[in-house]
Design brief:
Layout: E1 8-12, E2 27-31, E3 40-44, E4 53-61, E5 64-68, H1 78-81, E6 85-95, E7 99-100
Antiparallel strand pairs: 1-2, 2-6, 3-4, 3-6, 4-5, 6-7
Organism: Actinokineospora globicatena
InterPro entries: LexA/Signal_pep-like_sf, Peptidase_S24_S26A/B/C, Peptidase_S26
Subcellular location: Endomembrane system
Length: 101
């Protein structure tokens, strides 16, 4: 999955996996930078080509990052897919309630 070379991206959230922190249809800003545990991040998995997901970084591993959705009942994440490749860190929610994450 190619994320492009832009250092800042605007992303539309789809689905409930990051509820309550982020809701379906929220718009966020992500920045290409190194994540730390607890950050909300944009990730991909080799097993899901073409899909970009938003998850919470838990801990680095040899093969990427262990990431999980905030809503364990509605999230497919590292618990089933293994380590993810992190591409950017979500810094702000733009809409509907602007705030720093």
């Amino acid at each position: 999955m190619v994320m492009g070379r832009l250092p800042v991206r605007r992303v539309l959230i789809k689905g409930p996996s990051m509820s309550p922190a982020l809701q379906d249809r929220d718009v966020v800003v992500a920045v290409a930078r190194k994540p730390k545990p607890g950050d909300v991040v944009l990730v991909t998995w080799d097993d899901r080509p073409g899909q970009i997901s938003v998850k919470r970084a838990k801990e680095p591993s040899d093969d990427g990052w262990h990431v999980e959705g905030d809503n364990p009942f509605a999230s497919t994440d590292s618990r089933t897919l293994g380590p993810a490749r992190v591409h950017a860190v979500v810094m702000f929610r733009l809409w509907p309630r602007p705030r720093r994450l």
